[in-house]
Structure formats: structure tokens, C-alpha cells
Amino acid sequence: MAHIDYFFSTLSPFAYFAGTRLEEIAGRHGAGITYKPYDILALYDRLGAPRPQDRPQGRKDYRLQELRRISKKTGLPLNMQPAFWPTNAAPSSYAIIAAQKAGGGDMGALVHGLLRACWVEEKDIADDAVIGACLEAAGFDKGLSFSGMLSGAEEYAANLEEAHTRGVFGAPFYICDDDERFWGQDRLADLDAHLAGEL
Which of 51, 39, 10 is nearest to 161 (CA)? Predict the structure, then answer.
């Protein structure tokens, strides 16, 4: 069975724009997914890449245009300047890690729910109540936001190390078990074609 390691940040608008297409693609091909949230700002620092706020103005302007265009193309609404961005991505990431270990719910719905909370619903995804509501809506125990903190913190740090080692440089980033890599929500069609043996 094919497998996809999914590296992402709960702060990424581009991960939000992926929606649940990854899960739909994996379902079509019988592929498994391992969700690997990581600290994207720490990765930028390691790579010597500027953080979003430190990028040249032209690139900042272009990013805003891209976000507007992608919102129209995907049909997914977006608040261009959400009230709680950037926020601490660790608590929501810990919850995702804990939910993946616990099982019993819909991981795609959880990840998208957290991203939507940030980029559409003007909610702080570092807030325990917001995280708990997203867990519950996706079929998980909302208490995972507390019970999974220690192991979540350890795995969150390990995901950063793995991302750096495996050549990840952005989000969303998908790595198949044959080491074929796809960066960006706009490459999901290519990932689909690859799993179908067409690319």
C-alpha cells in the first residue's frame, strides 16, 4: 500500500487551501497518510530563509495576490489578515499528533477544521477551547488537547528534525514512500497522477 508523509504547519494558508483533497486522493489509491505538523518558522531559520514578515515587500505583495487568486480557484473563503495570525502553532499541532495516535476520528477533518478556524473563523488555534471544539467536531475526544501534550511536544520537535533531514522547505509538503516529493497544494493533482502511475 502506498503511503504519504504529510508535513505541514497549522499556520499555513496554503495548507488550508489543500482542503481535504489529500484525503480524497489517498482514499482513491488506498494510500495511508501520516500527519507530521512541524514548526515551519524554526525550519525557515535553519534553512537561512526569511520568515514571512522579513521577506522583501515585493514578495509579500505577491503572496497576498496569490492567496486571493487561490481562494477564488478553490472556492475556499479566506481572511487575508486573520485576527490570530501568527499564533503559537504548537498546541494545535500537539492535538493533531495526539489524535493521530488515539484514532477513532477523521484526521482530515481535524486538520482542515483547525486551519479553517484560523483563516476563516477568526479563532485562536492556540486556545484550548478552540482546539477542543475542532477535536470534537472531527470525532475525537476533546480532552486530547490536554492529555497528549507531553508526547505531542516530543513528536512535534522530532517532526521538525525529520522535515529538515528529508529536505522539506515549506508547507504543505508531501513525500511518498518512494521518496517522490510534492510541494504546495497546487501539486496535489501531480501527487494524484503519481499514485496512479501516470507521473
Answer: 39
Neighbour tally for 46: CB within 10 Å: 14
Question: Angle at Cα 187 formed by Cα 14 and Cα 165, nearest 5°?
Answer: 80
Tens-digit pLDDT string for the chain (199 aa):
899 999 999 999 999 999 999 999 999 999 999 999 999 999 999 999 998 889 999 999 999 999 999 999 999 999 999 999 989 999 999 999 999 999 999 999 999 999 999 999 999 999 999 999 999 999 999 998 887 777 889 999 999 999 999 999 999 999 999 999 999 999 999 999 999 999 9
* Sign of the Cα pseudo-torsion (40, 33, 155, 131, in order): positive
DSSP summary character for residue 50: P
User: pTM of the prediction?
Assistant: 0.95
Between CA 25 and CA 193 the distance in angstroms is 9
Q: For 3-195, CATH number? A: 3.40.30.10
Element (H, E) at 37: strand 32-37
Q: Residue 107 has which C-alpha cell? A: 484526521
Task: Give yes or no for a contact between 9 and 42, defined as CB atoms under 8 angstroms apart.
Answer: no
Q: What is the DSSP letter of 104?
A: S
